Amino acid sequence: MKTVPVGVSARHIHLSQEHVEQLFGAGYQLTEMKPLSQPGQYAANETVAVVGSKGSFGKVRILGPARKQTQLEVSRTDAFALGVNPPVRESGSIAGTPGITIQGPAGEVVLEEGVIVAARHIHFHTSDAEKWGIADKQLLQVKLEGERGLILDNVIARVSADFALDMHIDTDEANAAGAKTGDTAIILD
Question: The whole model's pTM is what?
Answer without folding.
Answer: 0.94
